[in-house]
Amino acid sequence: MNIPFWEDSYKDDSVSAFGIKPNDTLKEFQHLFDKSGSVLDVGCGDGKNSLYLAGLGYTNVEAFDLSENAIKKLHKLAVSENLHINAWQQDLTQFVFNKNYDLVMSFGTLHFVEKKYWKDFILKAKSHTNDNGIHIMQLFTNVLPASPDIAPFAVGLADDEEIKELYSDWEILQFKSYTFEDEHPGVPKHYHASNKIVAQKK
User: Fold this and answer.
1) How far apart are alpha carbons 165 and 93 in whole angstroms?
2) pLDDT at 119 over 90
3) What's the rounded Cα separation, in Å, for the pair 24 and 45?
């Protein structure tokens, strides 16, 4: 059974699989968010983006990830920083919305489930987003083959600009199609092709 590289990082408090700084796009658009709004961090990993928002005073931050080790690490980090985040272990394909959100964000996660599942998730997330709510979604595309470190798990690579079509009825504040160099603890440098979208419900 293949085990993704990030599981070892989640078990080790001395390293971070994906860095400790919040995503630049989150910081760029945070002026549009209300600190009392409801936030959902999808595929949160060990929580760098959720921890960032909670540290700024956001009071309704929820986060989930498939990895139990990631959630354990997030909880430890939150306690160490005296922050409250409602985080739990969850399979994206089985997530059920029972409330509306003002911000739904997902960075580098959706392509790890089959395309039909991430498309369905986005459609449901849109219908459970409050007016003027924001989505920030970033996923890998098939412009480049999946790198060896994620190839066994990247079962839902998007076509370029495919995610943009799902937000045709929202205001698209930013869309980027790009490639970037990446590296992780114990993994050689490699490249990914990605789409990132920031959209607002009007």
Assistant:
1) 21
2) yes
3) 16
Report the DSSP beta bridge partners of residue 199. Answer: 135, 172
Q: How many angstroms separate the CA atoms of 14 and 74, rounded?
A: 13
Q: Calculate what percentage of the chain has a pLDDT beyond 90.
A: 81
- In one-letter notation, the amino acid at residue 125 is A
Structure tokens at 47: 């929580």
pLDDT number for residue 1: 46
Q: Which two tokens stand for residue 35?
A: 């600190």
Q: List residues bridging with 101 in a β-sheet.
A: 129
d(CA 164, CA 176): 10
What distance in Å separates the CA atoms of residue 176 and residue 25, rounded to the nearest whole number?
Answer: 11
- Predicted confidence (pLDDT) per residue in 123-177, tens digit: 999 999 999 999 999 999 999 999 888 889 999 999 999 999 999 999 999 999 9
CA angle, 123 then 125 then 129, to 5°: 120
Neighbouring-strand partners of residue 194: 140, 178
CA distances from residue 185 to 12, 52, 68, 103 in whole angstroms, order as listed: 11, 22, 19, 30
Q: Which helix (H) or strand (E) holds 69?
A: helix 68-80
- For residue 149, the 8-state DSSP code is T
